[in-house]
Structures are given as C-alpha cells and as structure tokens.
Amino acid sequence: CALVAALITLSFGGAVGLMFLMLGCALPQYNKYWPLFVLFFYILSPIPYCIARRLVDDTDATSNACKELAIFLTTGIVVSAFGLPIVFARAELIYWGACALVLTGNTVIFATILGFFLVFGSNDDFSWQQW
C-alpha cells in the first residue's frame, strides 16, 4: 500500500513538472517550443546510474570508479538541463518568464526522478532492477 501511494505521488510530481514545461512553451505570450529539448535530458539523466548499478557489486563499502563516473555524468546532464533554458533566454530565443517556468519544471522533474530511485532503488522484491 505504501508503494502504491509512493507511485501515485511520483506520477503526480512528474505531471506537475511536465505541466510547468508545457506552460513555458505554450502560453500565448511565450509561444516558442525550444524548451522542449529539455526532454532529452530527462530521458538521459538516469541512464548512467542505471548502467553503473548493473555493473557494480554493492557489497563493497568503498567508493567505486564506475559509480563515481556515473554520478559525474548524471550531474553533467542535470546541470545541462538547467543551463539550456538559460542559454535560450540569453540568446533571446525564449522569454525569461518561460525560462523560469522551465527551470521550475526541471526542479520538479529531477526531484521526481530522485524520488523514484530512493523509493524503488533498494534491492527488495519490487526493485526497478527486475524490470
């Protein structure tokens, strides 16, 4: 029952984050769809960590180079997702209000992705590794 509530909360968070992204694109005063390129970062961000978790044996308590590289790549992807709308706004491709909405959506989406890994990332029977 707790997993169902967590899944509902995470899906609501994802929907709210995508709503902010769409508002930054589709409101009549903005009406430019350049910020949708941020969707690629949403898809790419969990990939390095998922690959590293498959390859790394978690029985070792010390740091692992593969896992550290995955965290570094994930951080680069997340920072790029926040930087892209700012670059678009500085280049005057989008308005600053649209940039603020996209940055708000980024915060919500990445918090949702982090929440997914915190809730479903343990090695129990309902782990994401079995999917």
Automatic annotation (TrEMBL):
Q: What does this protein do?
A: Negatively regulates growth hormone (GH) receptor cell surface expression in liver. May play a role in liver resistance to GH during periods of reduced nutrient availability.
What keywords were assigned to this record? Membrane, Transmembrane, Transmembrane helix
**PANTHER family found in the cross-reference section:** LEPTIN RECEPTOR OVERLAPPING TRANSCRIPT-LIKE 1, LEPTIN RECEPTOR-RELATED
GO-annotated cellular components? endosome; membrane
One BP term from GO: negative regulation of growth hormone receptor signaling pathway
Q: Where are the transmembrane segments?
A: 33-56, 68-88, 94-120
* Full protein name: Leptin receptor overlapping transcript-like 1
Does this entry carry the keyword Transmembrane? yes
For this protein, the record's InterPro entries field holds: Vps55/LEPROT (IPR007262)
Membrane-related topology note: Multi-pass membrane protein
Concerning its family, UniProt says: Belongs to the OB-RGRP/VPS55 family.
Q: Return any one Pfam family short name.
A: Vps55
* Principal localisation: membrane
Which compartments does it reside in? Answer: Membrane
